[in-house]
Design brief:
The protein is α/β, with parallel strands linked by helices and about 325 residues long. It is built from 9 helices and 15 strands. Strands 3, 4, 5, 6, 7, 14 and 15 form a 7-stranded mixed sheet that branches. The chain has a 6-stranded parallel sheet with strand order 10-9-8-11-12-13, with helices on both faces. The protein has a two-stranded antiparallel ribbon with strand order 1-2. Helix 4 links the parallel strand 9 and strand 10. Keywords: NADP, Oxidoreductase.
Length: about 325
């Protein structure tokens, strides 16, 4: 019988529990997918805790996965039983052995890309494409700041930006993570627990500041990230690992004609042509070696609570995936 991890109440990782579910035949425009790998992301932790109230309860969390098409619904073109697909969706339902998936969000996996790699990299890679090609276009000669540079998104962002010719300053929390950040393309690494990252950025840039700051940490780093910007610099807040950013006076941006955005990747993926273009960009970066990624560390799906514990404790040195 199909199984899923059900969320019936907000709380700690222990509220994630495995249950048997019913999965019907695909309706019009849908695919029935037998999942072989499921991505685990901070977004899932925010949904589980109640920080994001975007999944009606009871519900099945999870926004990323990969597997094999078992059946197609009426009107579906371009997909057939046996196709390997991956997806990112804001409709949730990822933590399951089987699911009904809108064909509009499914992506055929390139030959040579494993389902485990797809579940490890799709959301992170599409997010990075959004960040450096659409929200703020990174170009050769720019200097950018990347917080959490050794994290899942951070590593890919640093690799891609460095390949585009940007000078990347990364912040990390330990010497071990500093080595990871340097390998990912950071020209400069700041140990934020030991150093004032604002002062270090000013020193590294000779007082100019950075063209863009990519901040997934949120509350603890937002003000400092803003202080790191050069004139006309852009602060991209795309996460809140330390908590949501408090309200601030927009007039503060006028001092250096700065800009701030809070992008959500699902908005950029909402139209099929954009999804296909971003996926093609990601797949090309992976196949050409611009991005270097490996399948994540795997746990059984029933151990979803443990996966969340590892992610939230920062003990996961690689992306995590669940295996149904």
């Amino acid at each position: 019988m199909p199984r899923a991890i059900m969320l019936r109440e907000h709380g700690g990782p222990q509220v994630l529990r495995a249950e048997t579910i019913e999965v019907g035949a695909p309706g019009a425009g849908e695919l029935l997918v037998r999942q072989t790998a499921i991505g685990v992301n901070f977004h899932d932790c925010y949904v589980r805790s109640g920080l994001y109230r975007t999944l009606p309860l009871p519900g099945i969390p999870g926004i990323e996965g990969a597997g094999v098409v078992e059946a197609v619904g009426a009107g579906v073109t371009g997909f057939a039983p046996g196709d390997r697909v991956g997806y990112v969706t804001g409709r949730y339902g990822g933590y399951a052995s089987h699911r009904l998936l809108p064909a509009a969000v499914a992506l055929k996996l390139p030959e040579g890309m494993s389902e485990a790699l797809a579940a490890s990299v799709l959301l992170k890679g599409l997010t990075v494409d959004m960040l450096i090609r659409r929200v703020h276009r990174v170009e050769a000669g720019q200097t950018i700041l990347v917080h959490a540079a050794a994290g899942g998104v951070g590593r890919l962002l640093c690799q891609w930006a460095s390949a585009l010719g940007a000078t990347v300053i990364g912040t990390v929390g330990s010497a071990a993570k500093a080595a990871i950040a340097r390998e990912a393309g950071c020209a400069h690494v700041v140990l934020y627990r030991d150093q004032d990252f604002v002062a270090e950025v000013q020193r590294i840039t000779g007082g100019r500041g950075v063209d863009a700051a990519y901040d997934s940490v949120g509350r603890d780093t937002f003000d400092g990230s803003l202080d790191c910007l050069a004139r006309c610099g852009h602060l991209v807040n795309f996460g809140q690992a330390s908590g949501p950013v408090p309200a601030f006076e927009v007039q503060r941006l006028a001092a250096k004609s700065n800009s701030v955005t809070r992008p959500i990747v699902f908005h950029y993926l909402a139209e099929r042509p954009a999804l296909e273009a971003m996926a093609a960009s990601l797949f090309d970066a992976l196949s050409s070696g611009v991005l270097r990624a490996q399948p994540g560390a795997s746990l059984p799906m029933d151990d979803a609570a443990r996966a969340h514990e590892l992610l939230e404790s920062r003990q996961a040195d690689a992306p995590l995936i669940l295996l149904p």
